[in-house]
Amino acid sequence: MNTLEKIQTRVGTKVDGIWGPKTLSAVADELGVKDNVKAIQAKVGVTQDGIVGPKTLSAIADALSIYVAPAKWPTQAEVRTGKSIFGKVGDEGNLVNITPPYPLYYDGKQVKTIRVHKLIADAVQRVLQRVLEHYGVERIHALGLDVYGGSYNFRKTTTGTKYSMHAWGVALDFDPEHNAYATKKPKARFSGPEYNYWWDCWEAEGFHSLGREADADWMHVQAPSLK
After folding, report:
1. Which of 53, 54, 13, 20 is closest to 35 using CA atoms?
2. What is the pLDDT of residue 71?
């Protein structure tokens, strides 16, 4: 989902990636200004040229508190240096609790909040909200998208000696019982076509699926790229 589509989602217009009259009117209304591009540009602090380009869209997104994920999150290797935007491993000061928009269950018990790195918190919320709107609670339950396997966990990878992305709170697991690390498609539950929208939502926010990219660990999604 690009910046304009995120803006359209935020203001409640058709999400088609086209800056038209309805999007213009909805954005102006949200910002409390006259229904024209220059008034919007003045409000968000960019050059008033009447052209809705990348700088204007970015400024509108900022004004509407829309987080636009970077084109590329840091790589795993960069994260493990402790010098990336995600900071040092195990630094719990970088973590926040977020409330999922639909019930999630860990070991059969509903969790009220999930703990993730503050830089990915808004993106995770948006993904889960879109998943709720697309599938609905009953379908989510039937697909196991409400089976939460955890996020922050100060540990090393299960197959090596390096710290897992979970140790920074930048990875999440779902339905681990049916998506074990060594389980490949089509046996891995989340490898089925009915999960394509689920993965598309994550990838729209710059996240990476080990399942889709490496056919392994289909439970797992993370912000850092694999390489």
Report:
1. 20
2. 53
